[in-house]
């Protein structure tokens, strides 16, 4: 596994771009045709998004588009260190970014909460080029050398990367936010069994509580961002801040804010389903029995999902 990624960051990043894109499109189509477990889960997820009871031709066509978008993400991950500032900034179409900069300029921390959409690595590089290096969290991968490669890649783009280690990572994220810095978290899939059950496309899904918990604890602005592709361009929408509710206990506030975040993600995914790269289980009904009945709704300190796929 590690050798394959090493090949990507050495050979693929140096290939002629047209040849590389053709190769990754072919890889996507081959994976789609094989219809393995990841693609089958993707199609079950897309059925939820489209409001369908079973996979049909429309879902199959859409899943092929998602696989191509997903492999485009990986191609760009391998080639991103070769992209210069003009390309990363010049090909980014973003709306609502003033919300981010206004908070940071005032000295207030910002939590940018994203789903697995589009290319958030490139969006992160764009934010760094705007003069705002940020902190994120990466899931621990095996072998350790593979995790180290991802950390080195993201750090080369100007990100600070923390290992996904529960309370330790949470505390450091809170420190960065209190210092008025941005934190970016990908939070549409719970990895810890400490997430919040939310209504998502008409069924119960489980999402991390960490972004809401951090906003409540530090006073940072919780701002959702959704991303997609527009031809050769990268696109993003910075949504309105999700405020901390005035009343209620801490857990009630976390639940309400996480539900609101899920609603924003639902809106973005419905608009661009072909760029939601979710080949894993999100809805509670799809989880193994032991995870369905896991401890739910803790205070969010036990885990922080990051940018690792």
Topology:
Layout: H1 2-10, H2 17-34, H3 37-50, H4 57-79, H5 85-90, E1 92-95, H6 98-105, E2 110-114, H7 120-129, E3 135-138, H8 144-156, E4 160-163, H9 167-178, E5 182-186, E6 196-200, E7 203-207, H10 210-218, E8 221-230, E9 233-238, H11 250-271, H12 289-292
Describe this structure in words.
With 309 residues, this protein is of the alpha/beta class. 48% of the residues lie in helices and 16% in strands. It contains twelve helices and nine strands. The protein has helices at 2-10, 17-34, 37-50, 57-79, 85-90, 98-105, 120-129, 144-156, 167-178, 210-218, 250-271, 289-292, and strands at 92-95, 110-114, 135-138, 160-163, 182-186, 196-200, 203-207, 221-230, 233-238. The strands form three sheets. It has a five-stranded mixed β-sheet, sandwiched between helices. Strands 3-4 form a two-stranded parallel sheet. β6 (196-200) and β7 form a beta hairpin. The longest helix is centred in the first third of the chain and has 23 residues, at 57-79. The model has no long low-confidence stretch (mean pLDDT 90).
Order of helices and strands, N to C? Answer: HHHHHEHEHEHEHEEEHEEHH
**Overall pLDDT level:** 90
How many beta-strand segments? 9
**Spatial ordering of strands, largest sheet:** 1-9-8-2-5
Structural class: alpha/beta
First-last Cα distance: 14 Å
Count of discrete alpha- or pi-helical segments spanning 4 or more residues: 12
Assign an overall shape: globular
Stretches where pLDDT is under 50 for at least 5 consecutive residues are none
Helical content class: 40-55%
Based on CA atoms alone, the radius of gyration comes out at 19 Å
- Main sheet properties: 5 strands, mixed
Strand content: 15-25%
């Amino acid at each position: 596994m590690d050798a394959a990624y090493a090949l990507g960051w050495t050979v693929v990043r140096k290939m002629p771009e047209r040849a590389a894109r053709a190769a990754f499109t072919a890889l996507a189509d081959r994976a789609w045709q094989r219809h393995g477990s990841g693609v089958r889960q993707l199609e079950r997820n897309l059925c939820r998004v489209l409001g369908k009871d079973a996979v049909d031709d429309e879902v199959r066509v859409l899943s092929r588009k998602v696989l191509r978008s997903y492999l485009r993400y990986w191609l760009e991950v391998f080639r991103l260190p070769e992209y210069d500032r003009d390309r990363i900034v010049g090909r980014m179409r973003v709306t609502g970014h003033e919300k981010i900069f206004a908070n940071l300029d005032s000295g207030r921390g910002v939590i940018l909460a994203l789903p697995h959409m589009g290319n958030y690595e490139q969006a992160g590089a764009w934010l760094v080029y705007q003069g705002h290096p940020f902190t994120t969290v990466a899931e621990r991968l095996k072998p350790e050398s593979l995790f180290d490669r991802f950390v080195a890649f993201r750090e080369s783009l100007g990100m600070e990367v923390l290992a996904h280690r529960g309370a330790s990572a949470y505390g450091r994220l809170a420190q960065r936010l209190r210092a008025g810095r941005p934190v970016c978290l990908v939070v549409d899939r719970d990895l810890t069994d400490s997430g919040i059950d939310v209504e998502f496309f008409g069924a119960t899904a489980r999402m991390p509580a960490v972004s809401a918990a951090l906003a409540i604890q530090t006073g940072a602005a919780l701002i959702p961002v959704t991303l997609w592709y527009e031809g050769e361009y990268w696109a993003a929408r910075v949504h309105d801040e999700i405020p901390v509710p005035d009343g209620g206990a801490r857990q009630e506030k976390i639940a309400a804010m996480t539900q609101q975040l899920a609603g924003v993600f639902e809106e973005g995914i419905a608009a661009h389903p072909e760029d939601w790269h979710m080949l894993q289980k999100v809805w509670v009904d799809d989880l193994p029995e032991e995870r369905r009945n896991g401890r739910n709704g803790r205070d969010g300190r036990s885990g922080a999902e990051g940018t690792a796929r």
